[in-house]
Write a structure and sequence with these properties.
twelve-stranded mixed β-sheet, about 15% strand, binds S-adenosylmethionine, binds iron/sulfur cluster
Amino acid sequence: MPRVIHHQPDPAPAGGDAAPAPGEAVRDTFGRPLRDLRISVTDRCNFRCTYCMPRELFGADHAFLPQGALLTFEEITRVARIALQGGVRKIRLTGGEPLLRKQIETLVGMLAGLRTPEGAPPELTLTTNGTLLARKARALADAGLTRVTVSLDALDDALFERMSDSGVPVATILDGIEAAAAAGLAPVKVNMVVRRGMNDGQILPMARHFRGTGHTLRFIEYMDVGNTNGWRMDEVVTGAEIVRIIGAEFPLRPLQARYRGEVANRWAYADGAGEIGLITSVSQPFCGDCTRLRLSPEGRLFTCLFAEQGHDLRALLRAGADDAALAARLAGVWRARDDRYSERRGEAHRDHKIEMSYIGG
Ligand code: SAM
Ligand code: SF4
Ligand code: SF4
């Protein structure tokens, strides 16, 4: 029986780390610069997606983090400010469901007010299941959010309700997507996790629905994150297969990556109706270009989505550490980083991976 694991003991902090020179990206053991910070603001969610928070394991008696354990908006903003000095240029808010965190737009405003050493605001995005987006899109845009990614795994109501294990109709999510675009959070990215035998029959309906809308549909290979979803390789529908399925109805041509480390492989519809993206973390891992650091809701840093251990920052934050000490800790964690889980998938079994609903993808 799988277990939900949040609290593997953190390793002892590495000592003697110097903060990087302002504006200079700190690099890990493979020379990968720190560029992205993903901040999970809550471990709670109003969905129980079967591949992420199966209800048998995240039921009424599941112990979510208590409010006092969560980093405050001030603490999150302080970590983000220091991370910008260490090389971060993009910040993504996630969860759990980030729009469940009260006054999330206040945090967006605080983060949007930060500046990189070059004086630019960070690119600030958010990933959401979309249920509260129609209500919140305008406030988020006004607060300074740059863009939004909405997860949607099916257009068929019965299937969507089964996959999300919620009573929420697809129309609610589609309304959220339109509200986000209308508020200027465009282009909206729509993420669909494809699981064979579950929603692979929705690949074409989703492509047909979103082509020509200006929203970018991205297909995500089902991953073995966490310990609770019972992942099996034969449930993965590869990006190549998805391109074949869509290409048979709508001819596609590959697009060049816009920058090194771009996560999605992009394909354009030959008739000009926009593009799709493929996130092939299983069939074509991209660890070599992975520049992402993750901050958990209670202030632990994770250097990989598949990490078993985090590095606590909250104790330092709450003990009155100064910025230099926090910067040194952050740089030390990144410099020691040697993760490349997806490239080595299958070589070593891991029993204690963090859950996606905790760290946010
Ligand atoms: N609740 C928000 C949402 O669903 O967009 C944000 C957090 S959710 C963990 C972030 C993304 O991770 C979603 O797009 C979700 O579909 C994806 N995800 C969750 N479990 C996954 C898995 N096992 N494989 C691939 N993607 C997964
Ligand atoms: Fe919630 Fe997102 Fe996980 Fe679904 S994928 S259970 S919406 S955190
Ligand atoms: Fe990055 Fe870890 Fe994913 Fe590789 S497996 S791309 S290192 S998060």
